[in-house]
Amino acid sequence: MDRRKFSKNIMLSGLAIPVLNTGFEIDSVEPELFKEEAKKLPVRNFDVVIAGAGTAGVIAAIASARQGAKTIVIESKGYPGGTVVEGGTALHSFYNLWKAFPGVEKRQLVRGIPAELVDRLTARGGATGYAEMQRAYDYDSVCTSIDTEIYKLNAFEMLAEAGVNVCVNTFLAGVIKTGKKIKGVILESHAGREVIYAKSFVDCTGYADLAGKAGAAYLEPNDYDVVNSMGLGNVDIERYYEFLKSRNAIGQLAYGVRSGKPNQIIRIGAEGSNGYPEDFVSGARKIGMSAISTTVHDNYLMFIKINLKLPVSPTNRDEVAKAELELRKRMQKGVELFKENIPGFERAFIARTSPSLCIRRGRLITCDYDITHENVLNGDHFPDDVFVYGFHDMAPRLKVKNGGSYGIPYRALCVKGIDNLYVSGMMITSDHNAHMSTRNTVSCMGQGQASGTAAALCASKNLGSRELPYSELRKALEAGNVYFES
Ligand SMILES: Cc1cc2nc3c(=O)[nH]c(=O)nc-3n(C[C@H](O)[C@H](O)[C@H](O)COP(=O)(O)OP(=O)(O)OC[C@H]3O[C@@H](n4cnc5c(N)ncnc54)[C@H](O)[C@@H]3O)c2cc1C
User: Fold this and answer.
1) Ranges in the chain, pLDDT < 50
2) How far apart are CA 75 and CA 156, in angstroms?
3) Binding site membership of 69 for ligand 1 (Cβ less than 6 Å)
4) Would you state the pLDDT for residue 32?
5) Could you tell me which of 82, 391, 432, 66 has the C-alpha nearest to residue 224?
6) pTM of the prediction?
7) Does the beta carbon of 53 lie inside 6 Å of ligand 1?
8) H-helix or E-strand spanning residue 46
9) How many of the other CB atoms lie within 10 Å of CB of 263?
10) Distance between CA atoms of residues 389 and 108, nearest Å
């Protein structure tokens, strides 16, 4: 009996239909598994594939294209940006922690494409530049707040200007590999599936989807809460400030350009929980809410975070689905807490949320070098540094020695066991405390410039990542205005 007749007979007999709408029969031996039919996919060829147009990926793609490589970036959302436009408070940090160390010279450690992006944003009212912290400057010396929507547009435009082929709304769904070399990736979009072949690959997906599918070794420590952060509109920031001041509770504070006017509050939060009324503190604790926030606009506070601990790693789809709902319930409770308890928020509403929850780390890929916490605190530099960095999220308790910098070595971006794959962003550094430094946005961006540049150089000469002479990479990075201290 042919398949169609068989299905029709089953339907007429009223039995369950063992046929999917694809026309394939369910395997009767292993009914819980479905064998997908092999099919031919259209192919395109590039020099470099950047997976993920987030914090690191945008910079990596621009860097690669500026080296002359035919570059494609693949992003599952409809815009570039990633967690920098969804999770954080401010961009930590382009500078060393000079304010915490009297006598130490102020130095802009991260320059190159990351600084170019922020300078362009600032010029069009989409960022505060590098506003000096007035309080808590032993945590960070400067505050760079952003307008998330202008950031997305700015990143899009810079990618286009560099000549990057930008694939948004496109998911990296598979990897084609022979031996230790990646040959291509499989993409999935509303247009269907396609294959991209390339010479060099950079995984900037945060979740390490490319490296993971390529068989790289990884850890999933599940050592952080997941988060959705909300932007609150209709907030009187000056009344909020006066309220905290009257309680002698101002913690983090920075002034900068807000809605076109200089010397306005652009970062504000209480010192610990002391500054807030008791009901607010106990309510916020129940929903994991952290109130420190930044803005570049009047009447708006950007990143009020709601945290939630998952029982398993955030790569678990079903637990994440439950968390997405729970976080949205908590966000409504959060805005009510502000309205009821804090002057200046009486008419507040949720103006923005992240389209999906954010993670601080998911999969951690094993690379040729794993940056240690001692490296960070001692301010170690390496013979293969690709940029330098000086921020630590646990300051003032833990800081880079003498307000200086440490180096990120090239090896920390090269995936162990794979010849032509780099990683950049939150997926490097297994030590939790060292990761409290390397995962920050500006570090991710610096990594992106290094990996994108290296990937393009390798592609131009058909080299594996370990065959690229460091001197060539260093020369290209210096030409790209990357700053080094040694
Ligand atoms: C709640 C929170 C608060 C934070 N606060 C700060 C802060 O105040 N200051 C600071 O400097 N840092 C902060 N961080 C850290 C920092 O924001 C992140 O570590 C950094 O942005 C991560 O950058 P990334 O490039 O690794 O990943 P992302 O920026 O997340 O980029 C990954 C991109 O890949 C895309 N993607 C994922 N999978 C696929 C796939 N299969 N196919 C195609 N595309 C895919 C994603 O959509 C995303 O755009 C915070 C992080 C969180 C979660």
Assistant:
1) 1-4, 6-21
2) 11
3) no
4) 86
5) 432
6) 0.94
7) yes
8) none
9) 10
10) 9
Which residue's CA is the nearest one to ligand 1's atom 41?
Answer: 172
Encoding tokens for residue 75? 């992003």
- Rounded to 10 deg, the angle between the 441-461 and 470-479 helix axes is 120
Beta-strand pair 48-51/43-45: unpaired
Cβ 186 vs Cβ 38: under 8 Å: no
Q: Which of 49, 84, 202 to mutate to test ligand 1, by most ligand atoms within 8 A of the CB atom? A: 84
Query: CA torsion 114→117→120→124, rounded to 10°?
Result: -120
372 backbone φψ class: left, alpha, beta (φ>0; ψ -120 to 50): beta
The answer to whether the CB of 99 falls within 8 A of the CB of 133 is yes
d(CA 419, CA 450): 17
CA distance 26 to 90: 51
Q: Closest Cα partner for 122 from 100, 143, 138, 97?
A: 143
Which one-letter DSSP state was computed for residue 342? Answer: S
Query: Buried b / exposed e across 229-238, counting CB within 10 Å, b at 16+?
Result: bbbbeebbbe
Q: How high is the pLDDT of residue 271?
A: 76
pLDDT of the residue at 23: 55
Is there a contact between 205 and 52 (Cβ–Cβ < 8 Å)?
yes
Q: How far apart are CA 447 and CA 409, in angstroms?
A: 10
Q: What is the pLDDT of residue 101?
A: 95
Structure tokens at 85: 């436009």
* Whole-angstrom distance, CA of residue 410 vs CA of residue 386: 6
How confident is the model over 101-118, as pLDDT tens digits? Answer: 999 999 999 999 999 999
Strands, sheet with 200-203, edge to edge from the N-terminal-most edge strand = 165-167, 71-74, 48-51, 200-203, 421-423
Tokens of 29: 């031996």
pLDDT at 14: 44
Q: In the numeric block, which tokens belong to residue 446?
A: 């610096």
Atom nearest to 424 CA in ligand 1 = 26
- Other beta carbons less than 10 A from residue 470's beta carbon: 15
Look up residue 1 and give its amino acid.
M
State if residue 171 touches ligand 1 by the CB under 6 angstroms criterion.
yes
With vertex at residue 57, the alpha carbon angle to CA 108 and CA 462, rounded to the nearest 5 degrees, is 105
In the Cβ-directed half-sphere of 414, how many Cα atoms lie within 13 Å? Answer: 23
Average pLDDT value over all residues in the chain: 93
Is any atom of ligand 1 closer than 6 Å to the C-beta of 208?
no
| CA-proximal residue: ligand 1, atom 7 (nearest) | 88
What is the per-residue pLDDT for 24?
A: 62
- Give the per-residue pLDDT at 17: 42
**Ligand 1 proximity of 407 Cβ (cutoff 6 Å):** no
